[in-house]
């Protein structure tokens, strides 16, 4: 393998040997794309992931600049206490609407406690005890049920009551953002917050309520595509191959530190149209079936009609513009599913 920033055990070393980057949640969907980018550019990568929703085989089986630690963030960081990282990309989180509705305590604890621990670690894990550059992955869920679209980073947000567990995810991500910004303000931590909108592409799985892989999988096997509610709710889908490089650029651009950025596509499509598009792109004979929200999630589940980011800030900061069309993403998701199933996974 090329120039190594790692010793024979894969331990990260100096900048002269390439960047050393810690990626939490690196075996997940977005993380696996990011890790590949980092390896391709010559960085040494340490992944901490408990494989709760990620998969070890999302990452290369072996690579002399990749170290994989199967652990919760807090435990993994304990093991890395004496090590140095130039960058920390924090993607580990309890994700997916279904998981959040079904396991609210787990969601709240994971998203808040792990982020708090990670940010404290990042304060001194850089060279000579300096802070590392950090990216914290947040979510468009932070906008809550605001209907002032497109969403701008500094807009007010609106949440439902705490008696509805559905809103706990938004609160946890908002708290993560507060913590990150507070560390920037109080401790000069060079941290940026990426507020991700629907990110899609190869290696995303449908098991946790993600709509594109669920539709693609069903279309591939001729099963009905299940559209929740009336299907007129709209989302903007951005390919992970556009998102991952943007996350690195945000982390590495000093003028972005201490700020929040929307990341995603700003072109909405209704969920019903998405289902039709999947069927058409894949030449499937699947029908579309609507399912009431109460049945799909829980009684009283509240969804948003339209979630659309304003991308002016990220465009200006790093020149971000999504490039991959939805049809290509749909085909990429299909190919990845076929490959995985062909491999017997
Ligand atoms: N994919 C999207 O559309 C989207 C949208 C908004 C925000 N995000 C955010 O982006 C990040 C990555 O999401 P993703 O779509 O790749 O999901 P994912 O589930 O594929 O990735 C999350 C990864 O974190 C790991 N993980 C979870 N809890 C952990 C813990 N306590 N310790 C260590 N590892 C843990 C999981 O095993 C998984 O590999 C998350 O923070 C998520 O909230 C994603």
Return the average pLDDT rounded to an integer: 91
| Strand content range | 15-25%
Summing up helix and strand content along with how strands pair, one would put the structural category as: alpha/beta
The CATH fourth-level homologous superfamily of the domain at 15-200 and 238-266 and 303-323: NAD(P)-binding Rossmann-like Domain
Overall geometry: globular
CATH architecture of the domain at 15-200 and 238-266 and 303-323: 3-Layer(aba) Sandwich
Q: What is the quaternary state of this protein?
A: single chain
Order of helices and strands, N to C?
EHEEHEHHEHEEHEEEHEEHEHHH
User: What is the CATH top level name of the domain at 15-200 and 238-266 and 303-323?
Assistant: Alpha Beta
What features would you describe in this structure?
The protein is an alpha/beta fold. It has a domain at 15-200 and 238-266 and 303-323: NAD(P)-binding Rossmann-like Domain (Rossmann fold), CATH 3.40.50.720. It has eleven helices and 13 strands. The protein has helices spanning 29-41, 73-79, 97-102, 104-122, 168-187, 211-220, 240-252, 271-282, 293-296, 312-318, 326-342, and strands spanning 20-24, 44-49, 66-70, 87-90, 133-139, 191-196, 199-200, 225-228, 234-236, 238-239, 260-263, 268-270, 288-291. The chain has a seven-stranded parallel sheet, sandwiched between helices. Strands 7-10 form a two-stranded parallel ribbon. Helix 1 links the parallel strand 1 (20-24) and strand 2 (44-49). Helix 8 packs across helix 11 (326-342). The longest helix is centred in the middle third of the chain and has 20 residues, at 168-187. The two termini are 27 Å apart. Residues 24-25, 27-31, 48-54, 72-73, 91-95, 110, 114, 137, 139, 196, 198-199 line the site of nicotinamide-adenine-dinucleotide (NAD). Nicotinamide-adenine-dinucleotide (NAD) is lined by residues 24-25, 27-31, 48-54, 72-73, 91-95, 110, 114, 137, 139, 196, 198-199.
């Amino acid at each position: 393998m090329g120039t190594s920033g790692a010793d024979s055990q894969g331990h990260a070393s100096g900048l002269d040997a390439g960047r050393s980057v810690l990626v939490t949640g690196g075996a997940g969907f977005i993380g696996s794309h990011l890790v590949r980018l980092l390896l391709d550019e010559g960085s040494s990568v340490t992944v901490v992931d408990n494989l709760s929703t990620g998969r070890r085989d999302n990452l290369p089986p072996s690579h002399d600049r990749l170290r994989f630690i199967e652990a919760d963030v807090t435990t993994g960081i304990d093991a890395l206490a004496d090590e140095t990282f130039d960058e920390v990309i924090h993607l580990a989180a309890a994700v997916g609407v279904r998981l959040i509705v079904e396991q609210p305590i787990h969601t709240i604890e994971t998203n808040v406690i792990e982020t708090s621990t990670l940010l404290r670690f990042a304060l001194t894990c850089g060279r000579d005890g300096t802070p590392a550059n950090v990216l914290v992955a947040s979510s468009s869920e932070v906008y809550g049920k605001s209907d002032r679209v497109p969403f701008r980073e500094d807009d007010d947000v609106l949440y439902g009551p705490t008696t509805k567990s559905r809103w706990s995810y938004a609160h946890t991500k908002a708290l993560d953002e507060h913590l990150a910004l507070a560390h920037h303000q109080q401790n000069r931590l060079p941290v940026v917050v990426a507020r991700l909108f629907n990110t899609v592409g190869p290696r995303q799985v449908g098991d946790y309520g993600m709509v594109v892989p669920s539709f693609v999988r069903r279309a591939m096997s001729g099963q009905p595509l299940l559209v929740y509610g009336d299907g007129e709710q709209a989302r903007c889908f951005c390919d992970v191959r556009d998102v991952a490089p943007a996350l690195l650029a945000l982390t590495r651009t000093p003028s972005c530190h201490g700020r929040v950025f929307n990341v995603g596509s700003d072109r909405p499509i209704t969920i019903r149209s998405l289902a039709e598009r999947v069927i058409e792109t894949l030449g499937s004979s699947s029908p579309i079936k609507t399912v009431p929200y109460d049945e799909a999630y829980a009684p009283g589940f509240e969804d948003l009609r339209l979630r659309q980011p304003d991308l002016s800030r990220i465009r200006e900061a790093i020149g971000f513009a999504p490039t991959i069309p939805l049809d290509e993403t749909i085909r990429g998701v299909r190919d990845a599913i076929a490959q995985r199933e062909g491999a017997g996974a």
